[in-house]
């Protein structure tokens, strides 16, 4: 994903497509530009293709192309060879509160065109605006969409194409979680990263570990145990707390607190015997772990293993700005 690490010469590209008013621009603004969800009510419709460089850090670097909803994404107007040829992931946004038939037909046609040009594209569908749905309605809506798309793809002899579905809303963490999974697919070193996190988790009795991009709060990798939304939300919220406290009481850029370390770190103990543990890995990445409070008695072991993890990360990506 980062240009320094990527084999190809260009930055990976993510396409955002879907019907008018589906929520494409809102998703991009909320996830990557820190727009508050309510402000998206005032977003103007997108009338032409908007190319956005997401360069939060030396690590998270890719382009998002936001297509206007009214454009036919299979027509010559979108220059399919160019658009799909150099694309890594296609994110299709469906408004769950709207009629799905047309969106699904367009999605199937777009998958057909894109897959023919570039079979390595990763297809992701965001079943979006599910904030007003109950849990049962969400599951039912996704099931229905998946079944219809699968029928359409089979009819078009594209049943082998893998399409991932995510239930999302800009009003909670779900859209960040979904984008985390999209971004992870752009990282060639992901399996190594996950193995490193698995080793860390096993050696320190950590319950869950996330490696976060601090600016966007999407997670670059996690260990192989299942992700539950609540754990992700807790860890993402911890980043906000640490940033807020650092802004007020932090030492500032490049300052040394006398301990020889410039890395931010924080432990928060919750009232249910669980602790949250954060260690800055470099200027843009932070490791956030959930563990039993009792494990914190072995903090020395934890610190040692985190330092080893940071070192391995540095070797894997040759990260600049490594904290001392
Ligand atoms: N309830 C709800 N509304 C949302 C959500 N995401 C976006 N919206 C609203 O949907 C409307 C359309 O959002 P846009 O981001 O402009 O949609 P778009 O897909 O970029 O639309 P075009 O520019 O016409 O292609 C706005 O009023 C947003 O506030 C969501 O998760 N939940």
TrEMBL record:
Give the family, as the similarity comment puts it: Belongs to the GTR/RAG GTP-binding protein family.
Q: Tell me, what's a Pfam family for it?
A: Gtr1_RagA
Catalysed reaction equations from the record: GTP + H2O = GDP + phosphate + H(+)
User: Which Gene3D superfamilies does this chain map to?
Assistant: 3.30.450.190, P-loop containing nucleotide triphosphate hydrolases (3.40.50.300)
Q: Does the keyword Hydrolase apply?
A: yes
Chief localisation class? membrane
An example Gene Ontology cellular component term from the record?
A: lysosome
Q: What is this protein called?
A: Ras-related GTP-binding protein
What terms describe the molecular function in GO for this protein? GTP binding; GTPase activity
Keyword Protein transport listed: no
């Amino acid at each position: 994903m980062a240009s320094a690490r990527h084999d190809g010469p260009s930055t990976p590209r993510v396409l955002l497509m879907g019907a008018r008013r589906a929520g494409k621009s809102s998703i991009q603004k909320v996830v990557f530009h820190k727009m508050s969800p309510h402000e998206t009510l005032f977003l103007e419709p997108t009338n032409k293709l908007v190319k956005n460089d997401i360069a939060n850090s030396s690590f998270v670097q890719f382009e998002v192309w936001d297509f206007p909803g009214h454009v036919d994404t299979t027509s010559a107007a979108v220059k399919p060879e160019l658009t799909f040829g150099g694309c890594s992931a296609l994110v299709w946004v469906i408004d769950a509160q709207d009629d799905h038939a047309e969106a699904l037909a367009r999605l199937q046609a777009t998958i057909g065109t894109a897959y023919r040009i570039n079979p390595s594209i990763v297809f992701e569908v965001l079943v979006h605006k599910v904030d007003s749905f109950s849990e049962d309605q969400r599951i039912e809506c996704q099931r229905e969409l998946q079944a219809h798309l699968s029928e359409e793809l089979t009819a078009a002899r594209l049943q082998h194409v893998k399409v991932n579905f995510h239930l999302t809303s800009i009003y909670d963490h779900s859209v960040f979680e979904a984008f985390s999974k999209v971004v992870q697919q752009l990282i060639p070193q992901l399996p190594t990263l996950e193995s490193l996190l698995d080793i860390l988790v096993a050696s320190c009795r950590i319950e869950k570990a996330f490696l976060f991009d601090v600016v966007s709060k999407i997670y670059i990798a996690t260990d192989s145990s299942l992700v539950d939304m609540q754990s992700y939300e807790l860890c993402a919220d911890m980043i906000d707390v640490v940033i807020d406290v650092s802004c007020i009481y932090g030492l500032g850029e490049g300052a040394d607190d006398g301990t020889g370390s410039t890395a931010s770190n924080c432990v928060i103990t919750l009232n249910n015997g669980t602790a949250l543990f954060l260690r800055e890995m470099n200027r843009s990445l932070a490791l956030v772990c959930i563990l039993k409070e009792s494990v914190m008695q072995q903090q020395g072991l934890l610190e040692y293993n985190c330092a080893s993890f940071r070192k391995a990360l540095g070797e894997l990506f040759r990260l600049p700005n490594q904290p001392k």
